[in-house]
Inverse folding.
């Protein structure tokens, strides 16, 4: 699949070409849908493998990551789009905004687009050199009123300070469960009052029937987006010891215990959800 990028002066170019004026909100939707670079098709698990290694965010995954996540995570594009809106609502002047586990910078881009508060800094962090390299190249094409730093590093050891918006977009699930409490406590301690953590995760359910149903529906979603049963099976094996999902009550209680005052789900599609945790 090939996607096109509208240049930063795309609205002016369309108007000059004779198109009728586009209302701001409509333009924002069009821009978000068309603002991604050429996307390589994910074929990482398309051939049978004798030995399936644990999933890694290496160069091969980075090359196809946009296609991989959009064909694997129901509602991913909606979450990315709404991060722009949430950033505009919660970002405070003179504060810092963090994208922890930024991968190719989808949430970073969205934060930059939605930011209206002045004198802010966006800090995007990932421990994958391949992801960071591609994220930096993509951010070079983004114009924002904020300064943006993209760091190759470990989010478990990176300080969080003076934050008004923090994003963990399908990142916490890859952190060892025993280290999640400490990370969330650090984020809470480094956040301004009234700030928000946006936490998106794959989840499991205590009801066994519901958990199995949504598990099967997710696989149907992947088949509908072109993945074969072989690809689904092999990727599942690769992720088995790497991506450890938890229940929504587990996430909510841990965030409340970490110092957030209000925690609830704002988006859910099958066994994928996004939470808002307000400090």
């Amino acid at each position: 699949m090939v996607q096109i990028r509208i240049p930063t002066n795309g609205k002016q170019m369309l108007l000059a070409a004779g198109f009728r004026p586009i209302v701001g909100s409509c333009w924002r939707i069009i821009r978000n849908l068309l603002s991604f670079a050429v996307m390589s098709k994910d074929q990482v698990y398309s051939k049978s493998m004798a030995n399936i290694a644990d999933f890694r965010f290496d160069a091969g995954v980075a090359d196809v990551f946009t296609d991989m996540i959009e064909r694997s995570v129901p509602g991913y594009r909606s979450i990315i789009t709404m991060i722009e809106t949430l950033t505009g609502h919660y970002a405070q002047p003179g504060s810092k905004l963090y994208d922890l586990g930024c991968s190719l910078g989808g949430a970073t881009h969205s934060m930059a687009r939605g930011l209206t508060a002045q004198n802010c800094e966006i800090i995007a962090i990932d421990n994958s050199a391949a992801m960071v390299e591609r994220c930096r190249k993509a951010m070079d094409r983004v114009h924002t009123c904020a300064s943006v730093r993209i760091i190759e590093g470990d989010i478990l050891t990176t300080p969080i300070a003076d934050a008004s918006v923090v994003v963990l977009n399908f990142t916490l699930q890859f952190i060892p469960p025993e280290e999640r409490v400490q990370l969330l406590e650090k984020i809470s301690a480094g956040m301004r009052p009234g700030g928000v953590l946006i936490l998106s995760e794959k989840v499991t359910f205590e009801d066994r029937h519901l958990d199995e149903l949504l598990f099967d529906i997710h696989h149907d979603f992947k088949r509908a987006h072109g993945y074969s049963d072989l690809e689904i099976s092999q990727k599942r094996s690769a992720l088995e010891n790497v991506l450890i999902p938890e229940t929504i009550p587990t996430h909510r209680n841990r965030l409340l215990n970490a110092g957030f005052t209000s925690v609830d789900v704002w988006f859910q599609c099958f066994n994928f959800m996004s939470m808002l945790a307000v400090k």
Q: What stands out?
A: The beta strands are 96-100, 121-126, 147-152, 163-169, 191-204, 246-247, 262-269, 272-278. The domain at 70-205+239-278 is CATH 3.40.50.150 (Rossmann fold). Residues 1-9, 25-38 have pLDDT under 50 and may be disordered. Residues 263 and 277 are 4 Å apart (CA to CA).
